[in-house]
Every structure is written in C-alpha cells, then in structure tokens.
Specification:
It is a single chain. The protein has four helices and eight strands, in the order αββαββαβαβββ. The chain is α+β, with helices and mostly antiparallel strands and about 270 residues long. It is elongated.
Length: about 270
C-alpha cells in the first residue's frame, strides 16, 4: 500500500530487481530462460525426427534376401550376314561403276529370294589405292585402285539363309561374314525367365523360413539382371562341297539366363 505524500504519487516499484540492483539474480534468471528455450527446441527436434522415421524401412537385421535364377531357351528367328564386293580398276572412275554394277546385281538376286530391300543396308563403302613396295626404287608402286562395298542383309526367314549365302558366292561377293543369329523380340523369353526365377526364389524362401524358424511378412525389395554370358548358341555353317551345293546352316538355339533378388521383411 502506497501513501501519498505532499499530494504526489510515489514512484513505481517492481517485484523483479533490476540488473544494477541484483546482478547475480538477474544473470541466474537469464540462464534459466535460455536453458528452457534450448530444452524445448531439443524436444521439438526429437519429436520431428521420430515422426520422419515412421516410414523408414526395416533395419537390415530384420530382412533376408533370397536369390533365384532361371534359364530359358529360344530358337533364333533372324539371321544377319555381311557381304562384301571389291572391284579393281586403273583409276577410281573405272573401278566405281564396276563395283556398283556387281553390288546392284547381287542385291537384285537376294531380293528375288524373298528378302525385303528394307532389310538390306550399306554397311561400308571405301576407295583406296592398291600399292606394292618396290625395293629397287624404295617407293610404293601403284597397281590401280580398289573400290570396296559391304552390305548387311537381314534374313527374317532363317530357312533361306543357305540360299542367300549360295547366291552371294555365285554373284560376285568377294567376302562373306556371318551368319549372326538373333531373336527379334526377346520379351517373351525374358517374361518366362522372370516368372521361373521368382518361383525359384519363393521356393528357397519357404525352405529358408522352415530351417531358420522365422516368418516372412512381406516383400520389401526386388532386383533382376541378365547373366553377362547370356548369349546365343549357334551351330555354324557346314560348307558343302560340289557345284551349286548351298551350305547347310543350322540356327541352333539361344539361351537367356535371368537372376532375381527378393528381399523379405521378417515378422516381429
């Protein structure tokens, strides 16, 4: 209670001491407020971190990964051969038309076998001088010019590959390479291999759960990859001997091996 003296209001009196009145107490109060603020901030950060971890995957020690594999076999349905024609002439102007005439005639014969022109592509065209070393003059002497052209032929009916090779040999081809057998669409093979590989992994998982006495709750991870050595197995040409005897070419088969990795979460 304040009593007015001489009609004047006494000055305001605070319950809290000022900094100048009680420095130790003011300092302790300030440190207390700072501690409370730091404590609240740490609790808030911890709560947010726990909220973020609600959807994190199970620890590795709560998971088991099982691998499965499958190999499937398919029959190649495309054969590719590369045919080359070299033509010589005293100069480029002479060699070029000779080469073009031979290649065009060869392509026409192949088309007559039922191969589409869309499946015939020029793979290489080169012109170079044919030279030989002369030891007397220690220089290269010119023997003329060579024009070389290569075409790639995709044969979609593999039963015709023997006829294509025979036609190439009797119509001016000076080099033949191939055939390379492939499967045009391997998606069906891959689908089949995937289904079998997953079934293999599932069977292993069942046996593993029985052996270890654990229960798998659900699948939490999956990966798949083809073997690096997944490649066609070919039966290459057996070249026949005799006039107009086409080579016997067997496409063989193609093997595709697919591996899968399935990760299961263990039931708690």
């Amino acid at each position: 209670m304040y009593i007015q003296q001489n009609g004047k209001t006494p000055p305001h009196v605070s319950l809290w001491p000022s900094w100048h009145e009680n420095k130790p107490f003011a300092l302790a109060l300030l440190l207390t407020f700072a501690f409370l603020i730091a404590f609240l901030m740490s609790r808030t950060t911890l709560a947010l971190g726990e909220a973020k971890r609600l959807d994190t995957p199970a620890p590795y020690e709560h998971q088991i990964t099982v691998e499965g594999t499958a190999t499937v076999t398919g029959i190649p349905d495309i054969a590719t051969v590369t045919l080359g024609v070299e033509s010589e002439g005293p100069d480029v102007a002479t060699a070029q038309p000779l080469n073009a005439g031979t290649v065009n005639a060869l392509i026409a014969k192949i088309v007559e076998l039922g191969v589409s022109k869309d499946d015939i592509q020029t793979a290489d065209y080169s012109v170079y001088e044919n030279t030989v070393w002369n030891p007397d003059t220690e220089t290269y002497d010119s023997l003329g010019w060579i024009v070389s052209q290569q075409v790639t032929v995709k044969v979609r009916d593999t039963s015709k590959i023997s006829s294509v090779l025979d036609t190439a040999g009797t119509n001016g081809a000076t080099s033949i390479s191939g055939p390379d057998f492939t499967i045009d669409d391997t998606s069906n093979l891959k689908d089949q291999a995937r289904a079998e590989a997953i079934a293999d992994a599932s069977d292993k998982a069942i046996e593993l759960s029985k052996t270890l006495g654990v229960t798998f709750e659900r699948v939490v991870g999956y990966a798949e990859w083809l073997n690096a050595d997944s490649s066609p197995y070919y039966t290459f040409a057996e070249m026949g001997i005799g006039e107009n005897l086409a080579p016997d070419v067997l496409p063989g088969s193609t093997e595709l091996t697919l591996n899968v990795s399935v990760t299961y979460k263990l039931a708690e």
